[in-house]
Amino acid sequence: MELGVRGRVAIVCAASQGLGKAAAQALLREGSHVVIAARDRRNLNATAKEIAAGAPERPGLVVPLVTDLTNPRAIRRLVACADG
Question: Is 2 helix (H, G, I), strand (E, B) or coil?
Fold first, then answer.
């Protein structure tokens, strides 16, 4: 499916499992650079490795960032990471 997101940056929250993880995988397959966010560092890093391994032709395009979405500073940091 062509979503028109190739080369764009996507932020996926709650990405260490379930629907967030699936969304991040789909966006990566579509050619997006993906910043994945969750609170648990170990699960998030494992997910980033798994997602990247599933798309070996696109290495380095998954960036994990531990983020607590109840913290406004953490949200700003997440957006800044995705912005550049």
Answer: coil
Looking at residue 21, its pLDDT comes to 96
Which structural domains are found in the chain, ordered by start? 9-83 (3.40.50.720)
- For the chain, the residue count is 84
Task: Starting at the earlier edge strand, list the strands of the sheet with 33-38.
Answer: 9-13, 33-38, 62-66
Per-residue pLDDT of 8-41, as tens digits, reads 899 999 999 999 999 999 999 888 899 999 999 9
d(Cα 20, Cα 47) in Å, to the nearest integer? 10
Q: To which residue do tokens 């966010």 refer?
A: 37
Q: Which two tokens stand for residue 54?
A: 């599933």
Name the region of 6 (left: φ>0; alpha: ψ -120 to 50; beta: rest): beta
Looking at this protein, which amino acid is placed at residue 79? V
CB 4 within 8 A of CB 75: no
